[in-house]
Amino acid sequence: MEQPAGGRRPRLVSSLALGQRAWEVTLEWERGLLSWRDPQPPRGRHGGNCFVPASEIIAVEETEIEKQCSSGKWQKMAKPHAFTVYYVKRAQKHRWQCNEVTFWCVDEQLCNQWIQALKELLELQKSRPKQLLVYINPYGGKQQGKRIYEQKVAPLFSLASISTDVVITEHANHAKDNLFEVNIYKYDGIVCVGGDGMFSEVMHGLIGRIQKDSGIDQNNPKAPLVQCNIRIGIIPAGSTDCVCYATVGVTDPVTSALHIIVGDSQPLDVSSIHHNNTFLKYSVSLLGYGFYGDILKDSEKKRWMGTIRYDFSGFKTFLSHHYYEGTVSFLPAKHTLGSPRDKKRCRTGCYICRQSKQQPEEQQKNYGLEHNEDEGGDDWRVIKGKFLAINAVNMSCACPRSPKGLSPAAHLADGSIDLILVRKCSRFNFLRYLVRHTNQDDQFDFTFVEVYRIKKFQFTSKHLEDSDSGVKDVGKKRFGQFCRDHPACCCNLSNSIWNCDGETLDSSAIEVRVHCQLMKLFARGIEENSNDEAIYNQSTVEQLL
Ligand SMILES: CCCCCCCCCCCCC/C=C/[C@@H](O)[C@H](CO)NC(=O)CCCCCCCCCCCCCCC
Ligand SMILES: Nc1ncnc2c1ncn2[C@@H]1O[C@H](COP(=O)(O)OP(=O)(O)OP(=O)(O)O)[C@@H](O)[C@H]1O
Ligand SMILES: [Ca+2]
Known about the structure:
single chain, 545 residues, alpha+beta, PH-domain like, Rossmann fold, Tumour Suppressor Smad4, 3 domains, 4-stranded antiparallel sheet, 14 helices, 25% helix, 29% strand, disordered N terminus, binds N-((E,2S,3R)-1,3-dihydroxyoctadec-4-EN-2-yl)palmitamide, binds adenosine-5'-triphosphate, binds calcium ion
């Protein structure tokens, strides 16, 4: 064993056996890196160097091994002492797996020294959760939530020495109500096993509880909400799993469990939705009126069909081709760095999201000021028209059905919403628009589609405007003029409903405002170029150094 001087803690270098061969194994404290290399690779074989950053080590365990020599006969030798390192391995398409490597030697003291050192290194990973509260929806998606958790996730949590309190929900809103009762502050995170609806429930419980404990009235649409520092982890087991897909890049329970274990943290914008000073809901993914509202309305009656209900209702809604008349007024996001037409996507460590970090404090400072920038003054824009869809998205809304999502360049944590207005057009044109959700073509490059990056918006359907019961403030005052200027038109008399992250809203007249980075997920955003090969494994790493 070699322990060169220098640095605060010397690095550990030993010759340890991996299989039948001796490898040089190094633990570098300063860089937080475990590596092993074959000093004499067999002729004709490329000598591999393997690197695992401490932040991606899942666990270290003492292991019982029995040594067998290459001829297959038991070798008479001193008892081997071994330890296994479990670590993250990147597989295809943003998938993570738990890989393991077992090193052994005959020196018990050396083996213990390595186990001790690696465990100390793991102790330094301060953002990792130790205690989690887990809610499982046994009826979400394909009704596999309980099995997925027990077979794929619980063994990993136990390997990583994470203790859990598990609640299997018995009815809708069970998790949400429970979050108002339990001592949430003893947990390092809340995990939900289910789909977007289950995530939404847990998010409402957590945000609502934090506001209650901080004395914030959620019914006040202008109240500066208090940020939630308790992270939420999503184990995907739903029908769409859009929040998971758009923040991790894949809907895979093992990948999500590993992001939780390594203690990832991804801030997320949350929109609050009000009607006449009454709080309705929060939204993180899609808030959609018209097409997506109608799909939801129809699909709720078909829950028994399982995950294909959305395709069935989608087809039916497409054929019905309803459009809705109403007025949207919105406050454009002035100081954000990006635009919805950018080619660049929000990815791990996104610069635009990092720059937006100070927005919550600024919002807090501005609260109560009569003419603060956040209120927008005369910058509000009003658009009146006939719409097939009004989609307000806080993130790309990428999901397995649409891998780039409804707004591919939307950011997870930039404090803005992308507002997409799809005006009345022919069925054929609407189909062309939908098809572009599934291919590489620009879905905003149509005359009947507009997209704006905004901070706030209001919507009132024509129906409600006429009956004078819509949103009664800035937008309403402005709409008056438009109503006089335009002749009444013969659009669909019925209202659509709002699809709020897969749940329906009770009102069609709403006002919406985004709260920058209100909550955090156990995720890191989608990793760039993390496609086919492991970044830190085998010889690819050599090229990085
Ligand atoms: C020709 C193929 C076009 C395919 C177009 C696919 C676009 C898919 C876009 C999905 C966007 C999902 C946004 C996320 C929403 C979630 O917060 C929410 C809760 O989980 N999910 C839904 O509301 C569930 C929404 C489910 C939407 C399913 C839409 C299916 C549309 C099918 C249209 C068929 C037309 C065929 C004509 C021949
Ligand atoms: N035990 C339960 N019985 C009935 N409903 C439940 C139960 N637990 C949770 N729910 C509700 O089920 C709804 C749907 O669950 P979930 O989101 O997990 O699946 P999904 O709707 O199939 O998936 P997605 O939202 O991704 O489309 C949630 O809104 C949640 O409130
Ligand atoms: Ca956003």
